[in-house]
Design goal:
Blueprint: E1 9-14, H1 23-37, E2 41-47, E3 57-61, H2 75-95, E4 99-103, H3 104-117, E5 125-129, H4 133-139, H5 150-163, E6 166-169, H6 172-180, E7 189-191, H7 207-218, E8 226-231, H8 240-250, E9 257-262, H9 267-276, E10 283-287, H10 294-298, E11 303-306, H11 317-323, E12 328-330, H12 334-340, H13 352-364, H14 368-382, H15 385-412
Helix pairs in contact: 1-15, 2-3, 3-5, 8-13, 11-14
Amino acid sequence: MSGGKEKLKILMIAPTSFFSDYGAHVRPYEEIIALQAQGHQVVVCTYGSGNPVPGVDIRRAKLTGRSQVSIGSSKRKMLFDILLFFRTLWTAWSFRPDIIHAHLHEGALIGHFTRLFYPLHNAPVIFDYQGSLTAEMVDHRFMRKSSRFYKPFRLLETFIDRLSGAIIASSHNAASLLRQEYHVRAERIFTIGDGVDTSRFCPPTGAAQAEVAVLRASLGIPAERKVFVYLGKLAPYQGTDLLLEAAKLLLPDHPDYHFLVMGYPGADDYRRLAEYLGLGAHVTFTGRIPYAEAHRYLAIGDVAVAPKLSETEGAGKIANYMATALPTVTFDTPVGREFLGDQGYYPVSTDAAALAATLDAAMCDPQRVQRGLALRRKAIMERSWQRAAKDIVSVYQMARAQQFTMLDRLRTQPHSLPSAKGKPGE
């Protein structure tokens, strides 16, 4: 796929507190930066809270009083989604976009309602799919599979998946999930994986190495320690609890190991847990790390870890690890394999003992540095946001062309329906 020369007006819907410093926000952020670099105009509709992003036009669905939305699934988000719909509808009237690019299932539904109430006949809705809605609810402990609400939400998810004219899947695993579990036609799915800015996320050299040493010292990490790094959300389904349990198993025999755990929410709670487990001197919690500073902190590490337990969500942090030339330990999931291939380190099971054994094997591997450099080469070849943006624009163009074809059919044969076969959008 390759992008066309036409400059497009893109209305992006991000049903989150954009921008916040964790994984779900990185994909839309990097897409916006790459699309704008190609000359396209992007306006983002999002929740009322979140950090401003220099150079990005953000339109917020504001609510008087408390505007902060918790990470993950919550009842409060449903109210903000209603507000976001009206903000998106108002923005569509004034901006008149060529494309509606919607993130997450809530965003896709808002995008389709926007087209319903404002006839954007030539603005197809592109659904940027990062994983299952109901699986995320279960992972975040918002709902159980045994709940009476599970099946209705599953039906809603299926409806949204099939409603979208074209879907951009963030991984081949996500694309397979859409085809096999939700029976979305394969010709409507385009896999464009999470990318990374390899010019910013890179191994430190020269003066950068001295800066990393200063940063490391400021965190209180002794110079002789070998450091495991994690950067992302802190939560049981992200494997944070398992990581601390693995540290407890490793440290008695390896007092030279240190764990740098970066992210939020709940950093203070996990810090107290680490103290309770007797790990306080060997685990450093930083709390929230600004995305603009993430590359500096990752450069402290010798080995990276991504112990996410979810089978359906993406794992964009792994691309950042790869570009930084960090050997990476992750559970043997389809998404993990898709990123790392044969260069990853995979525990034999999803328990603390297996994770500890694999962390130790990775740190002691004489080929560790070479494997990290191989991952960086893989990131440069396969994970460029610039190339991803060109592919995204190609999906836009195909969906727009199909939209025009459909409108022409309706004008000439107003009582006919489009064929069940063909290109995306039919």
